[in-house]
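Hi R.,

Here's the chain you asked about this morning:
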Amino acid sequence: MSKHSFKLRAVAVCILVLAGVVLPQPAGAAVGLYDIPEQYLASPVDDTGAFSGWAYASYLSVMNYRLKQGWTTPLLNVDDLVFNHGFEYGPNDGGQWYMSTAYMSRLSGPLTAITGQRDLFLTGSIVYEGQAAMKAAVESDTALYVDVYDQYGHYADTATIVGYDDSITSWKIRSQAGDSYVPYAQCDTYGVSFETAENNIVTGAYQYDYFGQVTYMQRPAGIDTLHVANKFHTSAEEELAAVGFYTIGENVGYELRIYGSHLLGGAPQNHLLTMTGTIANEGFHVVDLEQIINLASGQDFMIWLKLDNYLYAVDMPDEDYCGSVWDGEGMSIYTYTGDPWYVLSDYYDSANWSIKAYTIPEPGTLALVAAGGAALLLRRKRIRLR
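And here is the predicted structure, written out as tokens:
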């Protein structure tokens, strides 16, 4: 049996013309009719260049959340939506809501290049399952990211639900093409909201995944376990405050460990922290550490992860889909038994785990207090690397 066993999952990048039923907005109020007020929404955007529906729907949901919190400066404008995401297919269509969560949690790109309010940190997404839950969310003025299909069930576009009308059994959706009505049956049975975009409480991100989950790795048949890890090297004296990773599936248990160093062959050393928990929804998630870890400048550290379904997100270049990759050769490793450790990029060129480490400058608490940041960080114990 080969020591390696990988399974690729293709990302849907089919581009079709939306063939939903488009109806005019009915006049007057009626039972089973609701529109999110325009003050909580971004305006439709004309064709201003290459950008994709999944990105537009993600950004509109983020903006919706922040506008509901009383922002007066628009979060996004036309120029922000014309952003080269690195996706080369069609020419840059691709991704899913969980990939866009990881993408917008990079502390770079569109959420740090916007006009006006800039300091945002997206820590996850909220899934509303079933038509009743989706309608309740819309009635609370929550715009929902959703995939839309044509009458034959083929993927057509990604858009944002901004209302509904039971009299025509349709969602009101907003996309870069404008507003339209699409039958309930031609949309996903769940909607996603990015209701976690908060003022930045972290300032640095160590990561090797440019896109997020491009594919995944799973344990081979007959093997009981699989652990993965990313190795990082600090560029300054910092405090490790949070870790980001994917879960592929629902109600996935995790064990997360932080190590202060590692051997040349990859084995972790100097155990500092272990955390366990369960994450309800699929996607990318940011987990606050129970204890902040002080990192010295030039310090090696390792994020070790075990998921109880043994499915781990992988970021890598994919021909005709996403050709770029961040430099992390040899820094993503895995093991079946704890020894030996294998290097992921030895099997897949330029492949890395989608695991991020988030830091704040040392002394981080003073900066947070001055900026009105999260008091939670002040109450955490600290671990000093030796």
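One quick note: The chain has two domains: 11-193, 202-384.

Cheers,
M.
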